[in-house]
């Protein structure tokens, strides 16, 4: 049995098939059998991989489908254009870096965030997309229902957590503390992408507490890719 057939059997969890092939007596047909098996296993592997990608995109929670090819690059703010190749290669995920997009509405933050998330799904990263206010509500409800630990554990394991629209809707201090707890748990272990219409100096309006805001910014901006997305709104062009 070829090394590739054995590898595919392990990957596809077909230990019984691997054992059967290993026990086959050599015969004039062995080469043809191995070639057929290799072809069939490669097809099954690609089929499962594609199903996994489709399911990852479906379950990530994207509000709509956006890809890099859909972007009108010339209309993006300068920072977004300069960082585009870095964002496309997803190197920041391997380095557990955060991505922060800050600027007024209508400049492509959400579109770019979705495009990054979809690409990450298609490259077998685990991705969750949430509005920040929606996630805070989920955290508050989970705490009330005594399942916060489970939810935090699930979110901590995600390779890329996308938090959209931080600053559009405020939440109370209890919600802010829960969000801080989540983001602190992901510090330097997984990537978080945040879009916000507020400059960092204004985040205290959302988190209410200066010390909490400072501690959060200290963690979330460390080694992060920070994009200034201020510009003319697409909707006004």
TrEMBL record:
Alphabetic keyword roster: ATP-binding, Nucleotide-binding
Superkingdom of origin organism: Bacteria
Domain AAA+ ATPase: 95-230
CDD domains listed in its UniProt record: AAA
Coiled-coil stretches noted in the UniProt entry, renumbered to this chain: none
Single GO MF descriptor: ATP binding
Membrane-spanning residues: none
Gene Ontology terms: biological process: DNA replication
Family the entry assigns: Belongs to the IS21/IS1162 putative ATP-binding protein family.
Name of the protein in its database record: IstB domain protein ATP-binding protein
